[in-house]
Design a protein that fits this description.
Largest sheet: 3 strands, antiparallel
Structural class: alpha+beta
CATH topology: Cytochrome Bc1 Complex, Chain D, domain 2
CATH class: Mainly Alpha
Strand order of the largest sheet: 5-6-7
Shape: globular
Number of strands: 7
Length: 181
């Protein structure tokens, strides 16, 4: 699963903790990743009669490296204007610039080389790649909503993400607003 076996604990209603199996923690992580909606921005979509649905063959791989990004119409994006997303919801454009859904798989092009501490820092402090002195994560990543997540929930999510199929996919870099045409 990961470089070392993680200790797994679950909090009980009475405030105590109990050890749980790695399998149970991974299942909890899967549940959290799904209900939080990580796939909304981190999984390419297939267009169906009911609208876009996650492409499960590319689960959480982020914006496809080989995908083209449509041209942004002039004078549409900016303060007091529109925020846009591409048709598979892995690219967002707004006053912050252009951001791409990151690869959350355990491949080295994703979070495969990240420690748990890096994952926690990204999720709770909004730091790019979980590195202390890095740029902030850009919208629509709602890291501010995760600041109060319990350590056990973050650890469960991390363990789940480290257990899924690794997909090699180098997501394009963030584009600041000054570089948007």
């Amino acid at each position: 699963m990961s470089k070392k076996k993680e200790e797994a604990y679950i909090s009980k209603k009475d405030g105590t903790t109990t050890e749980t199996s790695e399998t149970d923690l991974i299942k909890k992580g899967e549940y959290l990743v799904k209900i939080i909606g990580c796939d909304h921005c981190h999984t390419p979509k297939k267009m169906t009669d009911q609208g876009p649905v996650p492409d499960m063959d590319r689960w959480l791989m982020g914006h496809p490296a080989n995908a083209t990004v449509p041209e942004i119409p002039e004078n549409v994006v900016g303060p007091g204007k529109w925020i846009l997303m591409n048709n598979d919801l892995t690219v967002a454009v707004g006053p912050w610039g252009t951001s791409f859904g990151a690869n959350l798989t355990p491949d080295d092009t994703g979070i495969g080389s990240w420690s748990y501490e890096q994952f926690k820092r990204a999720m709770t402090e909004g730091k790019f790649k979980g590195m202390e002195n890095s740029r902030p994560l850009m919208p629509p990543m709602p890291w501010q909503s995760y600041k109060e997540m319990k350590d056990e929930d973050l650890r469960a999510m991390y363990m789940y993400l480290m257990s899924i199929k690794p997909i090699e996919n180098v997501v394009p870099s963030y584009i600041p607003p000054s570089e948007i045409q």
